[in-house]
């Protein structure tokens, strides 16, 4: 008999990879739940003959009632992420925290024996510049203004206090298909950065379904491991070169000097030993991303690299805080 799996946030970066990997297994019937928009319809509609697609709002109890019955396992990835989460903290709390609570309550009523697999974040540990090696038992101390991290901590508590069986994966920096934004300047250049690819991350969620006993009622740090570690400055330098943008030659104070997150997962091998989900190294990540960039785009970026960097610099809030002598923002970004 096939097991019934519910996947939320299926059109997102990790969610889409998770769906693809679930579809490789013939032992599952799959229901996906997502917000209806142009991107979700485009991504999910090709699979409409193989999965049940339910569009709705995770914060609407009536919508969630439709997806909660008779589920054997749930992979809950739906969330509002930065920078939107930071710009609209109330929306982030409503979706990330209250949406999780509503889903949990409906599953407790309709699928009390389901296994709930949750995607949390390395952001819950806050600024780890001075102490970059992170373990699950470390204190949760979100950076100032990190609304996203707060919503994840609250959601974790709801899950742990529920009547369901559960596991929580705190994801490292998940890199793949990211667009450059103002957030790139919030992270100090000397940050210790451990990444994981969306494919490897998805593999962990899918494999966890059949490893319920080993991960039950436990929290894990999920990262790519030692082969996926680099400084943030080193990561940006390789990225800029790959995109044809040349050197990472931004002016002094373009990047924040504190109050972000990320680090190296000292205990990350614990989850790998159980699930054996890692297939990609840092070099694999860059190879995968490089394959997505057409020679034409790379050539154009090389020609227009100066205006592109000027445009990016205009989005640097740390740099603007210095230029405008904004004391509140300077205190947020600089020592």
How would you characterize this protein structure?
By secondary structure, the chain is α/β, with parallel strands linked by helices. The protein has two domains: 3-179 and 196-225, 3-Layer(aba) Sandwich (Rossmann fold), CATH 3.40.50; 227-263 and 280-333, no CATH class. It is 42% helix and 16% strand. Strands 3-2-1-4-5-7-10 form a seven-stranded parallel β-sheet, with helices on both faces. Strands 8-9-11 form a three-stranded mixed β-sheet. The protein has a two-stranded parallel sheet with strand order 6-12. Helix 1 (13-23) packs across helix 7 (198-209), helix 5 (89-110) packs parallel to helix 6 (147-160) and helix 14 crosses helix 15. The longest helix has 22 residues, at 89-110. The radius of gyration is 20 Å and the shape is globular. The chain starts with a strand and ends with a helix. The mean pLDDT is 96. It catalyses: UDP-alpha-D-glucose = UDP-alpha-D-galactose. Its EC number is 5.1.3.2. Belongs to the NAD(P)-dependent epimerase/dehydratase family.
Key phrases:
42% helix, 15 helices, 3-stranded mixed β-sheet, 335 residues, 7-stranded parallel β-sheet, alpha/beta, Rossmann fold, 2 domains
Count of helical stretches? 15
Strand content: 15-25%
- Using only C-alpha atoms, the radius of gyration works out to 20 Å
Q: In the CATH classification, which architecture of the largest domain applies?
A: 3-Layer(aba) Sandwich
Structural class: alpha/beta
Order of helices and strands: EHEHEHEHHEEHEEEHHEEHEHHHHHH
Mean pLDDT: 96
Oligomeric nature of the chains: single chain
The helical percent reads: 40-55%
Please, how many domains? 2
Protein name: UDP-glucose 4-epimerase
Domain 3-beta hydroxysteroid dehydrogenase/isomerase: 7-163
Keywords: Isomerase, NAD
GO biological process, one term: steroid biosynthetic process
């Amino acid at each position: 008999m096939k097991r019934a799996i519910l996947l939320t946030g299926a059109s997102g970066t990790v969610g889409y990879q998770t769906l693809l990997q679930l579809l490789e297994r013939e032992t599952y019937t799959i229901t996906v739940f997502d917000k209806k928009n142009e991107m979700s319809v485009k991504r999910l509609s090709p699979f409409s003959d193989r999965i049940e697609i339910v569009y709705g709002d995770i914060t609407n109890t009536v919508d969630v009632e439709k997806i909660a019955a008779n589920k054997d396992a749930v992979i809950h990835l739906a969330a509002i992420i930065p920078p939107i989460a930071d710009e609209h903290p109330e929306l982030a709390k409503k979706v990330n925290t209250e949406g999780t609570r509503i889903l949990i309550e409906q599953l407790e009523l309709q699928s009390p024996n389901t296994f709930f697999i949750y995607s949390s974040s390395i952001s819950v540990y806050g600024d780890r510049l001075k102490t970059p090696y992170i373990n699950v038992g470390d204190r949760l101390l979100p950076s100032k203004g990190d609304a996203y991290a707060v919503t994840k901590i609250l959601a974790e508590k709801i899950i742990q206090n529920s009547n369901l069986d559960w596991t929580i994966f705190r994801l490292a920096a998940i890199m793949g298909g990211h667009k450059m934004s103002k957030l790139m300047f919030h992270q100090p250049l000397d940050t210790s950065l451990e990444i994981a690819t969306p494919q490897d991350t998805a593999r962990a969620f899918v494999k966890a379904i059949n490893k319920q006993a080993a991960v039950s009622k436990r929290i894990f740090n999920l990262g790519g491991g030692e082969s996926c570690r680099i400084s943030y400055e080193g990561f940006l330098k390789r990225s800029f070169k790959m995109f044809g943008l040349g050197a990472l030659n931004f002016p002094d104070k373009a990047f924040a000097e504190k109050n972000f997150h990320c680090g190296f997962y000292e205990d990350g091998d614990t989850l790998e030993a159980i699930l054996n989900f890692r297939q990609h190294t840092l070099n694999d990540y860059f190879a995968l991303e490089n394959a997505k960039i057409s020679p034409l785009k790379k050539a154009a970026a090389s020609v227009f690299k100066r205006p592109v960097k000027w445009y990016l610099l205009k989005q640097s809030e740390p740099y603007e805080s210095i230029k405008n002598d904004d004391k509140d923002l300077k205190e947020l970004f600089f020592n």
